[in-house]
Design a protein that fits this description.
The structure is a homodimer. By secondary structure, chain A is mainly α. Helices cover about 75% and strands about 5% of the residues of chain A. Chain A has 2 domains: about 70 residues, Orthogonal Bundle (Arc Repressor Mutant, subunit A); about 160 residues, GntR ligand-binding domain-like (Four Helix Bundle (Hemerythrin (Met), subunit A), Up-down Bundle), CATH 1.20.120. The first copy, chain A, starts with a helix and ends with a helix. Chains A and B meet through helix 4 and helix 7 of A and helix 4 and helix 7 of B. Chains A, B: One of its GO terms (molecular function) is DNA-binding transcription factor activity.
């Protein structure tokens, strides 16, 4: 029974994690355990186990008398996450040594970014953009060649993903990514550093803007999220 | 039963963690599950659970066919741990804003360091020195005022503790700590940065020296450890 339970709670954890970091379950939304147990056709125990693991990952918070909620990050928390990300990522870039095989990968990524831009312009679908985003930043972290730094970054990754979905800076991010890749390909590492810091600061500002608006007017449906986006 | 088991394995985890980070169980030592189960008067399950959690914490490694061992860090791993530590700690110091209450704490710490020096000189007991070490570096990390950075540092802490016990730089570390505190108290933050970087690099070099020697001649008794120390 223990093994089955564990695997159930892990599956539920994965589904909820994707809904939260993918911004389908919005920050501040109350999580109804009974409803989830019915949806997944399981008892409440594995749902509760999954939620407790999500608390450790900072994606869910609990109000002891009231219940579980999707984590609603404060401005200060967003700043702290982005600050640590900036420290790790700029360090990795400063240390990075891009060889020819890395440069080939970056050129291929540049083409994928062009494609992501076309898809986003045509259908408003940011899926491919998100993929290129993860690939570029992941590659920079890889270049740190420090397994402990990579591990720490991976732990932050859910939160970074969540923040990424909050901001609507797709077109500007695409341009910033292109500038960053061009600087690396040209060997202008000092420029690359500046472009990266500037890009990460803008991502931070974008997240704070959206999430602060959401904190002021807690939302539970995607209809009201659209209002927030429109208000921007 | 599940609750009792959990608490048993957590207790065993704590005991083994202390033995490893306190350098009583030396790197490379084989861990005998049967022996530990007899010592703690428990079944093998909670011992194995504790060891598996210690693997996650990078303090134990497993060789699937042979068994569990106290983690024997490679030179590259020590460099990576120390590098990440340096990135986090120098960032925290750069950002730190020491107010009057912090300065009072640093003055009190300076007196404790004097005391630690006397105890170490008289009895060779480094317990008090280790305490002042943790207090000073912990205070710098606190001043980052970033809960995610603190969390990451805390995760590294067992490994930092382990490395700290490997090097025999007590007297030099005491002097370096004094210089660092003096620079902060004098408001020479640029000097403080340089002193911190220099200190952490020396700690790294000291750990690499001892642990590399130990890797070359795997040890299991403290008698043979003394030989390594003498060889230095």
């Amino acid at each position: 029974m223990e093994v089955v339970n564990k695997s159930l709670s892990e599956q539920i954890l994965e589904i909820l994690r994707e809904r939260i970091t993918g911004f389908k379950l919005k920050p501040g939304t109350r999580i109804n355990i009974d409803e989830l147990a019915r949806e997944f056709k399981v008892s409440k125990t594995p749902v509760r186990d999954a939620l407790n693991k999500l608390i450790e990952k900072n994606l869910v918070e609990v109000n002891p008398r009231v219940g579980y909620y999707v984590k609603n990050l404060t401005k200060k928390e967003i700043e702290e996450i982005c600050e640590l990300r900036r420290v790790l990522e700029t360090y990795a870039l400063r240390k990075a040594n891009f060889n020819n095989s890395d440069k080939e990968k970056l050129k291929a990524l540049m083409q994928k970014i062009d494609q992501a831009e076309r898809v986003y312009k045509k259908k408003g679908d940011r899926h491919l953009f998100d993929e290129t985003d993860r690939e570029l930043h992941g590659m920079i972290i890889q270049k740190s060649e420090n397994r402990y730094l990579k591990k720490v970054f991976l732990q932050l990754f859910d939160l970074i993903n969540l923040l990424q979905h909050t901001h609507q800076r797709v077109m500007s991010s695409i341009e910033e990514h292109r500038k960053l890749i061009r600087a690396i390909l040209d060997g202008n590492y000092e420029d690359a550093q500046k472009i990266l810091i500037d890009h990460l600061s803008k991502v931070e500002a974008g997240s704070i803007e959206v999430l602060t608006l959401m904190r002021e007017k807690p939302l539970s449906s995607s209809a009201s999220l659209k209002k927030v986006k429109a208000a921007k």
